[in-house]
Write a structure and sequence with these properties.
Shape: globular
Number of helices: 6
Largest sheet: none
Helix content: over 70%
Strand content: under 5%
Amino acid sequence: MKEEHDNIKTDLSLRKILSDNIRKRRKELHLTQERLAENADISLPYLSDIEHCKTWVSDKTLLKLAKALGKKPSDLLQEDETQIEEKTIESFYADIIQNQKKQMLETLSKICDTTFSELMSLH
């Protein structure tokens, strides 16, 4: 059981490292998610899921992202030694939940704006 827990923690940690490295490099290059997705020839929702640790990448996608960011694939999987944080798996889950809440609120806001506009156009 402990080995399974450690494997899950390792997988989640690697996702977090990849996510952080992609986001950091994207911001260094002043790229929006839309532009990076276009440059890497992947969909915007897929890139968003990668940056929010919701999904993993194939080797092909990792290569595309690395090329679009001007990095080697291995660079995107290495933890930044200056920013190493020891996080428990619980705090990692809390980060994921917080990101999902933020996305849900943004989506709800867009739905409300659209509905309001539609209602106003009826009058």
